[in-house]
Design a protein that fits this description.
By secondary structure, this protein is of the alpha+beta class. 25% of the residues lie in helices and 28% in strands. Among the domains are: 203 residues, Pnp Oxidase, Chain A, CATH 2.30.110.10; 122 residues, UbiD C-terminal domain-like (3-Layer(aba) Sandwich). It is built from 12 helices and 25 strands.
């Protein structure tokens, strides 16, 4: 029996089955200009983050889903794991990469509809305006695939794309990302950079694409490892790049050399608008999709952006820390603030704290500004416990390490820029800090954490406990 490849639909079915009520259907027509994100925000104000499936987005015949991976629980489900275990699962899966496989065009759902030449019209797709001051509609979920002209390696990453017109979008490659190296190499030789952009697939494809993998390439292998099966590829229509065969929609195009267009502003993951300045443009040469394609959007500068972005980073950090500190217990990059990282370790030597922290910083040089290292009795998934450890095991004069000008300059964090009164900005370096909130290494004794005996907690009987509604009447003492 042929098994069904994992894709966006298989994941939607899994959520419907295993987490009923977490995908809501919006049957009425909604405006792509702030309508979809406005509805999502209404739920967010109640601290609810269901996935939202919009049947009718004004101006398009293609339905749209947003917030699919806005909760850590659903993201963990995508890897067949749980919140507590998902970082370890991710780290272990990435250790065993699974190379992609090629399939014939007839077996590729993304080839059911093919628009080339005059048929190319981005206006038919339901691109969203997300936040109030965004410079236009943006593609937020595209997995961009390019080829390194030197090694031939295929690299994948997620970049932000402003939509400019019927066949033109922008792209901002962050300078240190591999896409930028490849684009600069091609531009220096006067060549365009062919690119394919896959929209809508199993969340593992995006997680693989944003995983921190040393060297150019390897993301599709990482995605395969996270999927637990090879990513199926098929050839593109207009270039020699591979296309994910089970994607919902694929854009094919070229990043043009020497051409720039003013980009942004756009609400970015740190929760601020960030103008791009002059950025490269992509000419779209073909659009292919499933007959009944679903457009997949990630809610930028919002919970989904953070949750989805944090897990691959936690997994990469966990793996990097594990190599230098085998006693690492857990790593948490909190969804509310992806610039922070909490690491718990079973500490054997004092030097392990800095080794762990620098491994984390080196894995995420552009994003992390604060690493807190705690002992293994602290639950790093609970901010309160981490703050408690800082309050009781950290001394600012001794245990704080500031690393001036650690990363940058520039980037997506507002702190990567110097802002001037005349409205201009110049890039600047960003500093980082490490907080050692661990107890001294053995054999030095340290006060024990006060706790009720675990047996007493287990033995406690809650079965007949009830709500007090009035002062109980007590019989007086005789
Ligand atoms: Mn790469």
């Amino acid at each position: 029996m042929l098994s069904v490849p994992k894709d966006l639909r298989s994941f939607l079915e899994q959520v419907i089955r295993e987490m009923p009520g977490q995908i809501k259907v919006v049957p009425h027509e909604v405006d792509p200009r702030f309508g979809c994100t406005g509805l999502a925000e209404r739920f967010a104000r109640r601290n609810e983050y269901p996935a939202l499936y919009f049947e009718k987005v004004k101006g398009s015949e293609i339905p749209l889903i947003i917030n699919l991976t806005a909760t850590p629980e659903r993201l963990a489900l995508a890897l067949g794991s749980t919140i507590e275990d998902v970082v370890r699962t991710y780290g272990e899966r990435l250790a065993e990469r699974i190379p992609p496989i090629w399939v014939a065009r007839e077996e590729a759902p993304v080839k059911e509809v093919i628009w080339t030449g005059e048929q190319v019209d981005l206006g038919k797709l339901p691109f969203l305006w997300h936040n109030a001051q965004d410079g236009g509609p943006y593609i937020t979920s595209g997995v961009g695939i390019v080829r390194d002209p030197e090694s031939g390696a295929i690299n994948a990453g997620v970049y932000r794309h402003q939509v400019y017109g019927r066949d033109e979008i922008g792209v901002w490659f962050i300078d240190t990302h591999h896409g930028a190296y490849i684009y600069r190499a091609n531009e220096a030789a006067g060549r365009p950079t062919p690119i394919v952009i896959a929209i809508g697939h199993h969340p593992a494809l995006i997680m693989g694409a944003v995983s921190r993998i040393p060297g150019i390439g390897g993301e599709l292998e990482a995605a395969g490892a996270l999927l637990g099966e090879p990513v199926r590829l098929v050839e593109a229509e207009t270039c020699d790049l591979p296309v994910p065969a089970d994607a919902e929609i694929v854009l094919e195009g070229e990043v043009l050399p020497y051409q720039r267009r003013e980009e942004g502003p756009f609400g970015e993951w740190p929760g601020h608008y960030m103008a791009g300045g002059p950025k490269p443009i992509i000419k779209i040469k073909a659009i292919t999709m499933r007959r009944d394609a679903i457009y997949y959007d990630i809610f930028s500068a919002n919970r989904e952006h953070l949750v989805l972005g944090a897990l691959p980073r936690m997994g990469s950090i966990y793996r990097a820390v594990k190599q230098v500190v085998p006693g690492v217990k857990a790593v948490h990059v909190p969804a509310h603030s992806r610039m922070h990282c909490y690491i718990s370790i079973r500490k054997e030597r004092d030097a392990e704290v800095k080794k762990a922290a620098f491994a984390a910083l080196n894995t995420e040089p552009e994003n992390l500004k604060l690493v807190v290292v705690v002992d293994d009795d602290i639950n790093v998934f609970n901010d309160g416990e981490v703050m408690w450890a800082i309050g009781t095991r950290f001394d600012a004069a001794r245990d704080l390490l500031v690393i001036p000008d650690w990363s940058g300059p520039g980037g997506l964090l507002p702190t990567g820029w110097e802002y001037h009164e005349d409205g201009t900005r110049t890039p600047k370096m960003v500093s980082a800090m490490i907080l050692d909130a661990t107890k001294p290494a053995p054999p030095v004794p340290y006060p024990e954490r006060a706790r009720v005996p675990e047996e007493a907690v287990d033995a406690a009987d809650l079965s007949d406990v009830y709500d007090m509604r009035e002062l109980p009447v007590r019989r007086g003492q005789e």
